[in-house]
Structure formats: C-alpha cells, structure tokens
Amino acid sequence: MKIAVLGTGNVGTALADGLLDAGHDVVLGARDPAGKDGFAPKVVGMQEAIASGDVVVSALPGNAAQDILGPFSDSLAGKLLIDVGNALTPAFELAYPNASLGAALQAQFPATRVVKTLNTMPVAAMTGPESRAAESTVFLSGNDEAAKETVAGLLSDLGWSRENQLDLGDISTARSAEHYSFLAFNLMSSLNTRSVNIKVVA
User: Fold this and answer.
1) Where are the membrane-spanning stretches (predicted)?
2) Is 70 exceeded by the pLDDT of residue 133?
3) Does the predicted TM-score (pTM) go above 0.85?
4) Distance from the Cα of residue 114 to its chain's centroid
5) Is residue 158 part of a domain?
6) How far is Cα 11 from Cα 32, in angstroms, rounded to an integer?
7) How far is the first Cα of the chain from the last one, in angstroms, to the nearest whole number?
8) What is the CATH number of the domain that holds 26?
9) In a domain, 196, yes or no
10) Above pLDDT 90, what percent of the chain?
C-alpha cells in the first residue's frame, strides 16, 4: 500500500519506519524537505506526499495540524487520513476541550475519511510488539467502517493483534481518546518510563 506520513518528528519517523518494515511503499512529507537526507523513507514536499499516498498519516503537531493541512483540502478528498495527534495549547491545555482534533479534521475535510488511532500512548509503544512490555490496547474512532478496517490492517502490520484493537465508534469518540492524554502523561511520570500503555479488560 502507498502511504504518506506527514511529519518528520519522532512519531512520524517511527511510524514510517514501522510501515516500511511491514512492506509498504512509504514516503515522508515535510513542509521543507530540503536537507532531510538521513531518513530511510524518501522525504518529499507535503503536496507530493499527499498525492502519492492511498493512505495519509498525520503525525503533525496537533495544535497546528488543521492550519498545515488546510491548503491541501482538494488533494485529501477521497483519501483515508489517519490522525495520531493530541492537540495541546502552549499552556498545556486541550486545544479542543469540547471536541477533538480528529472530529475537527473530519469537519474541515468532509470528503476525507478520518480515522483516529495511536494517540493514547508514547511513540515508544506505537510500533512493534517487542517495544511493549506486555499486551495492551489501541483504539480506533471514525465514521467510515471500511476506512477503519483498512487502519486495523495497518495496525496489525505494526504488531497490534486484532484482539488488542478496540473500535470506539464514530469520530465523535476521538474526544475521549484525546482527553486520555493527560492520564497517559501522568502514568509515564509516575512509572518513570515512556513505554507505557493501558490494557482494557472486560
């Protein structure tokens, strides 16, 4: 599958490397790709990356994602957009206290199928089961069932078994996943590790 990962920070490069290792055709998208030669996936401009991908992963800073993606509305139409961000203000407060970044992106790009996932854990726990000390849960939120099924397959490629994937429902449920971020930060601080996640037991 052709996948464009937008953002060359720790999250973007980790996901790009994991998807590349799984056999996907991956490019990294950057606002300024000049001088970014040390990455395994090719780094190209945002427009080229979005145009090349069947799936687009937004690993952009959460509080800037809407502004950065805004000019590419036409290119994102019909695409599957995976949002993995948590939008926090400089004061470390929720940028969307009564909604979520995922829902805001879906409203901004109605012709794009937005799926929220992987935002409830630090980057160290996102890819590869060997990076996680024990089995844990990853969540999905989105309006399009086929899009969520595609994302579930990509999560499997990253080492997440289907049994550990939990579909929360439509994109409005991304609110709860994003609000969880503060508990995640506290867990990392209390446990003194950045490789921590939760397991849902029913």
Assistant:
1) none
2) no
3) yes
4) 10
5) yes
6) 17
7) 34
8) 3.40.50.720
9) no
10) 77
Token duo for residue 66:
């809407």
**Which phi and psi (to 5°) does residue 115 adopt?**
-130, 130
pLDDT in tens, 58-84: 999 999 999 999 999 999 999 999 999
Q: For residue 197, how many C-alpha atoms fall within 13 Å in the half-sphere facing its CB?
A: 27
Q: How many CB atoms lie within 10 A of CB 76?
A: 23
Helix axes 10-21, 145-157, angle to 10 degrees: 80
Q: Mean pLDDT for the chain?
A: 93
**How far apart are alpha carbons 92 and 99 in whole angstroms?**
16
> How distant is the alpha carbon of residue 161 from its chain centre?
17
Q: Is 189 exposed, middle or buried (0-12, 13-18, 19+ CB in 10 A)?
A: exposed
pLDDT(151) > 80: yes
Q: Whats the size of the chain, residue-wise?
A: 202
Q: From the CB of residue 81, how many other CB atoms can be counted at a distance below 10 Å?
A: 26
Measured distance CA(85)–CA(115) in Å, rounded:
11
Distance CA 7, CA 89 (A): 19
| Residue 120 scores a pLDDT above 90 | yes
Is the distance from CB of 66 to CB of 104 less than 8 angstroms? yes
